[in-house]
Each structure stands twice: as C-alpha cells, then as structure tokens.
C-alpha cells in the first residue's frame, strides 16, 4: 500500500532522486530542497540561494551522501548529512539547467 510522505515541501515538487542507501532527495519551486529517509521521514530541508526552482537533483554513485542540485543557472554540491549550505557551486550556463548527468571516472 502506498504511503503519503508529508512535512517536506510547501510547494510543488519538480524532481526526485534516490541513492543506493535508500535516501531520497527532492527539489521544488523557489529553491526548496528536502532529503528524506527511506521511510518517508524528512531528514533535512534547505532553501538554496536565490528563488530559482530546483529542477534536477542527482546523488553521486561513488559518494552516496554527495548530492548535486541544479537551480537556475547554478549547480550546487551538497552533503545530505548536513543540509546547512552548499559545499561548492558552479555557475555553468546562461539559461536554466533542467537535467543533470554525472560521469564519475577514476583518475
């Protein structure tokens, strides 16, 4: 039976991604980002800089707690264990970024 997850977003959810450990991240309108436990409990919540929508979220396959989130023309790198701010961010485009793909190769 489906279970309704509540308590995370106050507006529309635009994207979701899950890591291999069962954590789920969701991005929404106005820079809203939420990390969820596999049981649907919100583990962390933050508003990304600016009011741009979070259009894509993607967990790292090699580091399951590292999360990439696109909002506006920016990609932020976050640690889902502590959603207090971004570890790094990249301004990579002049238009809104709608999709992320990650190619992690060892060097």
Automatic annotation (TrEMBL):
Q: Which InterPro entries match?
A: WD40/YVTN_repeat-like_dom_sf, WD40_repeat_dom_sf, WDR53
SUPFAM superfamilies registered for this protein in UniProt = WD40 repeat-like
- This protein is called what? WD repeat domain 53
This protein's species is Mus musculus
What does the record give as the organism's lineage?
Eukaryota, Metazoa, Chordata, Craniata, Vertebrata
Primary gene name: Wdr53
């Amino acid at each position: 039976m489906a279970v309704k997850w509540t308590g995370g977003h106050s507006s529309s959810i635009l994207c979701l991604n899950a890591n291999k450990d069962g954590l789920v991240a969701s991005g929404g309108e106005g820079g809203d980002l939420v990390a969820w436990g596999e049981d649907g409990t919100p583990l962390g919540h933050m508003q990304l800089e600016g009011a741009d929508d979070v259009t894509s979220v993607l967990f790292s396959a090699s580091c399951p707690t590292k999360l990439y989130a696109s909002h506006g023309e920016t990609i932020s790198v976050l640690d889902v264990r502590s959603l207090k701010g971004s570890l790094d961010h990249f301004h990579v485009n002049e238009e809104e970024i709608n999709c992320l793909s990650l190619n992690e190769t060892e060097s």
